[in-house]
């Protein structure tokens, strides 16, 4: 993977690019963790995403990848519907164009919102601003802020 591709996407595949679901647990761990560690040394930083070699996986592979500190994984399978969708939504100023890891972080932040028992307010403990809709009105919940809802 070229340096600029890694820097943009922060993803990796595996050391030798095998069909991971055909390997035993130890070899999956060696493939995934070995490549993750090597790339983190080469490029610095923390790799949080990966692409499944050949786009194939099973639940065993997903569990092991998660244990290696990988936040999200994706396939490489092409899909014409996705290409059509991307063309349809491109160059719009009301659409958030985000990387996979940005979407992951945002969803994780949404899940971290805290409400009291009466749901009268909400606290956002994350480092991201969160936007929600209340009675058809878009409301910003600032990072580490509490807002009244009622």
Automatic annotation (TrEMBL):
InterPro entries: Glyco_hydro/deAcase_b/a-brl, NODB_dom. Residues 14-72 form the NodB homology domain. SUPFAM superfamilies: Glycoside hydrolase/deacetylase. It holds the Pfam family Polysacc_deac_1. This is Polysaccharide deacetylase family protein. The lineage of its organism: Bacteria, Bacillati, Bacillota, Clostridia, Eubacteriales.
């Amino acid at each position: 993977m070229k340096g600029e591709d890694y820097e943009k996407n922060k993803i990796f595949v595996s050391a030798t690019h095998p069909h991971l679901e055909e390997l035993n647990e130890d070899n999956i761990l060696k493939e995934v963790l070995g490549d993750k560690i090597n790339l983190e040394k080469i490029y610095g930083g923390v790799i949080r995403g990966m692409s499944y070699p050949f786009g194939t996986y099973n639940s065993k592979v997903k569990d092991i990848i998660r244990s290696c500190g990988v936040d999200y994984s994706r396939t490489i399978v092409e899909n014409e519907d996705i290409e059509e969708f991307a063309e349809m939504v491109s160059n719009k100023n009301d659409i958030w164009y985000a990387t996979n890891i940005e979407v992951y972080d945002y969803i994780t932040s949404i899940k971290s919102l805290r409400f009291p028992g009466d749901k009268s307010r909400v606290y956002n403990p994350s480092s991201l601003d969160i936007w929600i809709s209340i009675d058809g009105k878009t409301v910003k919940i600032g990072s580490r802020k509490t807002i009244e809802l009622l």
